[in-house]
Amino acid sequence: MPKQVDHEERRAAIVSALWKLAGERGLDRVSLRDTARGAGMSLGQLQHYFGTREDMLVFAMDFISQKVTERVTERVMALEERTPHQILRMCVAEMLPLDDRKRQGSRINISFYVEALDNERLLAHSQEGARKLLDFFEQQLSAARERREIPADRDPRREGMIMMSVIDGLTSYYHLGLHTAEEALEMAMRHLDTLFGAPGAAHETKR
Amino acid sequence: MPKQVDHEERRAAIVSALWKLAGERGLDRVSLRDTARGAGMSLGQLQHYFGTREDMLVFAMDFISQKVTERVTERVMALEERTPHQILRMCVAEMLPLDDRKRQGSRINISFYVEALDNERLLAHSQEGARKLLDFFEQQLSAARERREIPADRDPRREGMIMMSVIDGLTSYYHLGLHTAEEALEMAMRHLDTLFGAPGAAHETKR
């Protein structure tokens, strides 16, 4: 199905152009027309795929989060020891702005977030994405609690939300220049490891 | 000195107009001209106080954070028991979007933050504000550690940054609709109380 492949390639080219422009000048200053130009096509051609800027943003959010999920899944599969603790350590490292691509990604995520606050459809979409991530964290922390690796009195959903907040906050303050990305990583890991090392967790238990 | 008072009142009126407009349409869509109109003065009159939009934003940031500091200081002074734990609990409650004014305030803070990412002067200013807040948290947590109310192996600066991140993250996810402000408060308090109740801290110690 060569035609199918072509369409997917074009969509990917559009997202890539959008990503580049958003990184340069901020998402709010990127129009459909600019993106078409950046992707080497006419506005009409781009509108064959995305009728509105909103359609394009929703697709881009999904596309990028799918890529991140794929990358994280791949790295989880490559872990020697797939315990909740190791999986969460890996996710934390992937989510922090430790290289240029992730730095740009987190800047664009901030822009997405701000646009979503004033747009119901983007808001619903962002909310769904955040909820999925929270479900994932909760699931890992529930498994950890069952394995008695975190204390029984820690609520997995609450600790998941705290963990997501820690990652986001450390990323925001990184962009503000309060610490390096490596320092952010160290702090996030200490937070996670403290939860796993907290008394009430049976340290050596491995089933 | 009636003239002096008048100037201060005018500046306050300008900030109040800016605040109102920023809450309605987002800070990025508020110009000097709009703000002058909102404050019931001409653009020329406003420019007597603030030559540029950037000057106005810097002043507004300082003005608002000064008001917050005054309110928090007042409430700290009113506490019956001024322990680090009680002071921090009070700060957490003040920083979360628990009423309409604070909700609007946190929305405007998010806008400030985003503008600062692309503006060196605003960035330096935001950074300084965040650093002062971090110093304050560190100071309270150091005092708590000296009183043996938090474990000796917890670094006060790191825990302060984690606490600020938790508050910011919970606020962001509140605006995204993941939880209510009351749920955010409950999670933040549990996080703080867990630190204070953590084994290694001498629970009953009060000097």
Automatic annotation (TrEMBL), chains A, B:
Mind listing the UniProt keywords for this protein, alphabetically? DNA-binding, Repressor, Transcription, Transcription regulation
Every copy of the HTH tetR-type domain together lies at 8-68
**Whereabouts does the entry annotate DNA binding, in residue ranges?**
31-50
Q: Which Pfam families match?
A: TetR_C_6, TetR_N
According to UniProt, the name of this protein is TetR/AcrR family transcriptional regulator
Native source species: Allokutzneria multivorans
